[in-house]
């Protein structure tokens, strides 16, 4: 694995990379994010099985990879489907996985200019957040020590070794408590590190498209400073499949509502919204492709907050020839 010095040098190198290799670009309307980690296409072997993370970082059309999931916060637990087969457990904590291959791949991906976000929650998360603000703050500090930059003198267990992710993603799909103080503390720690010369860090979210989002409402309602959100426009009545081409005003597809949120409610006035879509027939309800998908992407691009497209998930995408090219073409 890379040393701390190597990672520090990498952060400096990334700062001067051209925009095309810089991962998430807050000034772009054509960011592409694809979730990795859950092998949702479901293959145990063969050409469509989920490959290790570094395999996908060779794809120059992908800018951001949220890795899923950190599905326990206190105590922390990670699960990456078949990629976890290459993990072991820590002798000091048998409930926590030690994943040096994923740590190595995170560094490889960052060297390739990808933004790697650790996604928290997922559909199976049932922790409910935190019982108090103090617990939330302590959990944020612990996760930062585990997955952020290495801290001198710390003895915390680090599943990815010396690798440091580029941020954290709120992907909670059931009720949670005290997620605002949790996010506020994460932001403080991130900004402190960046101000001291480290790389930029991001806090993101993946709410459902119905507004307001039930699971993340408190954090989205001006509580946490999000850099970008990747809205799940699938599995819901307001999904991408409800877009009606040729209509200036959309009755159901509610990108307009979320753009209004970005302008009037978001703590970050420059927050970007990414259009989340299923990457294959079995990836989520409301799968849309071809001209219909391109029309919805192009229509969404009119909004100031629009930042690109998110897809669920990598295994589904790679089993669906031509879909990524369709998305990239629509983004221009």
TrEMBL record:
The UniProt keyword set, sorted, is: Chitin-binding, Glycosidase, Hydrolase, Signal
Q: Which family does it belong to?
A: Belongs to the glycosyl hydrolase 18 family. Chitinase class III subfamily.
Example of a GO biological process term: carbohydrate metabolic process
Q: Name one GO cellular component term.
A: extracellular region
This protein's name:
Endochitinase-like protein
Query: Listed GO molecular functions?
Result: chitin binding; chitinase activity
Q: Which residues form the signal peptide?
A: 1-22
The GH18 domain is annotated at: 30-332
* PANTHER family reported for this sequence: ENDOCHITINASE
